[in-house]
Amino acid sequence: MYDMNKWQHIFKLDPNKEISDDNLEQICDSGTDAIIVGGTDHVTLDGVLHLLSRIRRYVVPVILEISNLDVITPGFDFYYIPMVMNSKDKKWMMDIHHHAVKTYGDVMDWDNVMVEGYCILNEDAKAFQLTNCTIPDEEGVLAYALMAEKMFRLPIFYIEYSGKLGDPALVKKVKQKLDHTLLFYGGGIHTAEEAKQMKENADVVIVGNSIYENFKQALTTVKAVKGEG
Ligand SMILES: CC(C)=CCC/C(C)=C/CC/C(C)=C/CC/C(C)=C/CC/C(C)=C/CC/C(C)=C/CC/C(C)=C/COP(=O)(O)OP(=O)(O)O
Ligand SMILES: O=P(O)(O)OC[C@@H](O)CO
Ligand SMILES: [Mg+2]
Q1: CB distance 30 to ligand 1 below 6 Å
Q2: Is the CB of 165 under 6 A from ligand 2?
Q3: What ipTM, to 2 d.p.?
Q4: Which CATH number fits domain 4-225: 3.90.1720.10, 2.60.120.380, 3.30.420.40, 3.20.20.390?
Q5: 47 lines ligand 2 (CB under 6 A)
Q6: pLDDT tens profile 165-221
Q7: What residues are neighbours of ligand 3 (ion), with CB under 5 Å?
Q8: Where, in this chain's numbering, is Mg(2+) bound (predicted)?
Q9: pLDDT in tens, 114-154
């Protein structure tokens, strides 16, 4: 029904943060290609279900990015599963996932499940600290991208700078390594110009915190990446 390969822009909404009905309507009707529901900490099942029911008033596809086992629930169009490639702990790549598949494997619709190979590059991001990441050098990032596509055949490689604008030159080099795996870029995008710049090389840009910090500017990122701004 939805063709993820055509997506260019996604808003990420945090169930742990407040958004008014009016702002939520503008986000869902903005022309963005999808909404991800997710965050790093204090993400609860109640918060997720409440936000899902509010987003479901609109026609936009809605994805649950699973950050902890308690929030797994039916009703989303897609489920994104982060696998943190630059974590020092196997737990964040394999063990939690293994446990979840033991529990849900028989009832999962695998067509709706996409694994995201995450490379988290902002040391100050909560997700970086939680998952005990290490910063790779440029060669290291490029190798993770190749592993995501060629070894694991992941649908998504996600360059994550959560909270900070990343390096567009690095995004460009990563894109040059990938033939099939989609390149997601997220982190620190506030303005239309920043969104447009990252979209020059990423397949999809993700805008999160700016929704809660400068709502009007966040909305302008949609048209910017779609070449309408
Ligand atoms: C019947 C039914 C319910 C069907 C669904 C079945 C299904 C899809 C089951 C899932 C199976 C599965 C393999 C699950 C894996 C579960 C899991 C918890 C995996 C670990 C994920 C992980 C590595 C989490 C760590 C945190 C992290 C990397 C989150 C990713 C998102 C992220 C980086 C958010 C950034 O947060 P942000 O909002 O920027 O942070 P701030 O709060 O600082 O803004
Ligand atoms: O919140 P920001 O910094 O926009 O980052 C978006 C997203 O990549 C977070 O997972
Ligand atoms: Mg956030």
Answers
A1: no
A2: no
A3: 0.95
A4: 3.20.20.390
A5: no
A6: 999 999 999 999 999 999 999 999 999 999 999 999 999 999 999 999 999 999 999
A7: 14, 208-209
A8: 14, 40
A9: 999 999 999 999 999 999 999 999 999 999 999 999 999 99
Residue 165 Cβ inside 6 Å of ligand 1? The answer reads no
Ligand 2 pocket member 67 (CB < 6 A): no
Domain segments of the chain: what residues? 4-225
What is the value of pTM for the model shown? 0.97
DSSP calls for the chain: ---GGG--EEEEE-TTS---HHHHHHHHTS--SEEEE--SSS--HHHHHHHHHHHTTS-S-EEEE--SGGG--S--SEEEEEEETTBSSGGGTTHHHHHHHHHHGGG--GGGEEEEEEEE--TTSHHHHHTTB----HHHHHHHHHIIIIIS--SEEEEE-TTS---HHHHHHHHHH-SSSEEEEES---SHHHHHHHHTT-SEEEE-THHHH-HHHHHHHHHHHTT--
- Which of 9, 10, 12 is the pocket-test mutation for ligand 2 (most atoms within 8 Å of CB)? 12
